[in-house]
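Hi W., the pyridoxal-5'-phosphate complex you wanted:
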Amino acid sequence: MQSIYLDNGATSFPKAPGVGEAMARYINEIGANINRGTYKRASAAAMAVLDTRTALATLFSFGGGEDHVVFTPGATAGLNLILQGYLREGDHVIVSSLEHNAVMRPLTALAAKGVSFSRIPADENGLTDPGDMLPLIRPNTRLVMASHASNVCGALFPLEEIAAICAEKDIPLAVDAAQTAGHYPINFDALHLAALCVPGHKGLLGPQGVGALLLDRKFAQALEPIVTGGTGSASDSETQPQYMPDRFEAGTQNLPGIFGLQAALAFVQSRGVETLRDHETALTARLLEGLKTLPLRIAGPLTTQRRVGVVSVDMTADNAVAAYKLENEYGVMTRCGLHCAPNAHKTLHTFPQGTIRFSLGYASTEADVDAAVMALRGIVGAF
Ligand SMILES: Cc1ncc(COP(=O)(O)O)c(C=O)c1O
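Structure:
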């Protein structure tokens, strides 16, 4: 049977060429920790870590300096750091209506401690009107945090417009780029972001367990670390160093992951994010056209404008049965359910049944898309 991977929204597959080799090279030939030894292999590891920070800064047009590129275990860890490390009792936050639980669960926990939040409404296709944020701003609004693109329906958040409002009102803007980093160009400095949170294992094509948080210098100082511990620096002191990135990088770093990410970033840079985006946009257009010929609802934008290559459908029959058949009868791997974003489904009117999500990647092909549409056609016919 064919094997077609269309679950890149969960994690990318295949990884970029060279990722596995780079990780194996670190494990088999380097193996040393950083900030803790002065021998040559420790320096080689430290150089690779610095180079990876530089590559991330370059990719996201971030002029804040490599020391403000913080490694995290993933997007979730970075988002938790922003929310828990910045917000205090009495603060108010504005989020989009399509947030992932990586934002909503920590925010709900903070709500129990006196932090309040409002959601900018979105329409039933997941599109947000930036003007709808204005009435939500309060004197105690300390942060706007939004997912750049929905992991459920692919709708892009109007980041430029919201960034302009945040700049005018002097409210820090933190972006969850889990579904756009590596898929869609992001210019940190032009958007005047406070924070950009990226996972290494999705569009950046690196391994699981590593991600990054890019922090504006002023915002970084206002952010308290939520994990403290050894950094290999300032070891005469029992308090966390204030300087970056050590302030937020307690404990041994995921060095195999960072080596893998370094190789992945080299690939992403060599292809170019615009080229990757154009490829995925062309495939998304093809997928949307194919899906429109079937008796199902596409939950999300119906054209490639204002969206990325994450496409959800709601069948008239049982979504779970259809997704099961897609994999077991046609070899098409998708994800079915609520995708950790219940309010996104309420917005899209796909709650509680959820959707079948097709998510494209750099290695997806026209043949993959056509096979997925053909498979769905067969399943619909069989119901
Ligand atoms: C929009 C969004 N935010 C955050 C996350 C969490 O990312 P990670 O699991 O890499 O921490 C995901 C993962 O699916 C996501 O899609």
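The domain at 19-271 is CATH 3.40.640.10 (Aspartate Aminotransferase; domain 2).

W.
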